[in-house]
Amino acid sequence: MTKKHVLLAVSALVFLLVTFFISSGVEKNTAQAAVGDIIASYDFEDGRVPDPGGVGFQTQIPAAILTDPDGNHFLRMTASPSDAGINGGPPFYTFGNTVRSELDVGVFDWWTYNPVTVSFSMRILSATPPFSDGTMLAQFFQYGNNSGWVAALAGGPNFMAFTAKDGDQYELRPSLDAVNLPPDQWVNVSMTVFFSANVGGGQISVSVNGQNVGSFSARTLKNTNDPMHFILDFYGDPVFPYGTVDFDNIVLSSGSTAPPLPSTSSCHILDSSQAVPTGFGASYNVLSSAQELLLKAN
């Protein structure tokens, strides 16, 4: 074989290999991950932070890894009134005086990791001013067509609640009732999400400090083509002079940490046209005072 023939053979082989990898890359990998596969994990003991270029590091008081008196390292996120967008512009992409501090913990192919469980510890300090009802603290978010959040943890003075967008826009908003959020204490949260693009086809199951809070059905995908993100937030009304939330021991993994929970009677449909029914307390519609801020956020 001449040198020319060798070069032609090598060129043909390279072409075939490149063609194979390109054609393979356009196919969506639908292989299912094993239960317990770790997508992302942060305990902050090594100083490693999620999303080092994220909005949380562009705020007036940037996100930082701090140390408790016992030597434990944790992430503190802070939002102040100056961390607001101008007509939706960068870097905060908010309108009016709505503030945002945000870090993208992990992106994953929902079709490979389904369901997904995120667990983390969270702490609100009594030394800082309380933030308003409906402040978003964590969310599963999907970019691309019809982008937006699909499942979220929201908070207010001494409580947290879990909700989802069920319709193409904001028509249906299933939610779990409020859970007590004692100040100055670490609270361990676990949220398992089964992803589905059908209205009411997905499921969100929640436990707090090892106790089942409940579950509810909802649409948990905005589209079927784009991957999913899990994002830590401080997103809502401004807090003067600033608001903070601490996070630690974040683990994003495939599968559920517990058997699926039955639907609970504490699941209610929230929308801006509804009033709290007679005989029910504020917990029935715990996000009512901030629905349009939180539940119409993108």
Provide the fold topology.
Elements: H1 3-25, E1 38-42, E2 64-67, E3 73-79, E4 99-108, E5 116-123, E6 135-142, E7 148-156, E8 159-164, E9 174-180, E10 187-194, E11 202-208, E12 211-218, E13 228-236, E14 243-254, E15 268-269, H2 291-294
Antiparallel strand pairs: 1-14, 2-3, 3-14, 4-13, 5-10, 5-14, 6-7, 6-13, 7-8, 8-9, 9-15, 10-11, 11-12
Number of helices: 2
N-to-C SSE string, H for helix and E for strand:
HEEEEEEEEEEEEEEEH
Instruction: Please give the oligomerization state of what you see.
Output: single chain
Compute the number of strand runs: 15
Taking all Cα atoms into account, the compactness measure Rg is: 22 Å
Low-confidence stretches: 3-28, 258-298
Q: State the helical fraction.
A: under 10%
Instruction: Give the rounded overall mean pLDDT.
Output: 76
**Portion in beta strands:** 35-45%
Provide the structure class: mainly beta
Q: Which word captures the global form? A: globular
Distance between the termini: 63 Å
Compact description:
This protein has 298 residues and is mostly beta strands. It has 2 helices and 15 strands.
Tell me what the structure shows.
- The protein has about 300 residues and is mainly β.
- Helices cover about 10% and strands about 35% of the residues.
- It is built from two helices and 15 strands.
- Strands 1, 2, 3, 5, 10, 11, 12 and 14 form an eight-stranded antiparallel sheet that branches.
- The protein is globular, with a radius of gyration of 22 Å.
- It starts with a helix and ends with a helix.
- Residues about 5-30 and about 260-298 have low confidence and may be disordered.
